Amino acid sequence: MASSEPERLNPRQRDTLLQLFGHPVGHNVEWPAVLSLLEAAGSVDQRHDGTYLVQIGAETKVIVRPDGKDIDVQLVLDLRRMLTEAGYDALVEELQDEGKEV
């Protein structure tokens, strides 16, 4: 199981986190980058049916891999909520305060 400590995210994962929290909601957030972020933020288990069981903090969600390379807006919103509840919104604010943008 990966660490749930926000400071353990690598630069690419931090960029993906900023994309997820961007306004307006991004339409070009790539699945492989999201998967990497989720693995760092919590635990991800690929199930036999091709779905992913993702746990971040106290919340668990089943995610279906997108058909294309990008995730849809609803998944962005769902992940934003999960990550906020796990405390990642504070890291987003810190990165934005530092002037980091995607």
Describe the structure concisely for a colleague:
The protein has 102 residues and is of the alpha+beta class. It has one domain (6-97). It has helices at residues 11-20, 31-41, 73-85, 88-97; strands at 43-46, 51-56, 59-64.
**What strand order characterises the main sheet?**
1-2-3
Helices and strands: which structural class?
A: alpha+beta
Rg of Cα set: 13 Å
How far apart the termini lie comes to 28 Å
Walk me through the structure:
The chain has helices at residues 11-20, 31-41, 73-85, 88-97, and strands spanning 43-46, 51-56, 59-64. Strand 2 and strand 3 form a beta hairpin. By secondary structure, the chain is of the alpha+beta class. Helix content is 43%, strand content 16%. The mean pLDDT is 89. Strands 1-2-3 form a three-stranded antiparallel β-sheet. It is globular, with a radius of gyration of 13 Å. The chain has one domain.
Keywords:
alpha+beta; 4 helices; 102 residues
Task: List the topology elements.
Layout (H helix, E strand, L loop, with lengths): L10 H10 L10 H11 L1 E4 L4 E6 L2 E6 L8 H13 L2 H10 L5
Antiparallel strand pairs: 1-2, 2-3
Helix pairs in contact: 1-2
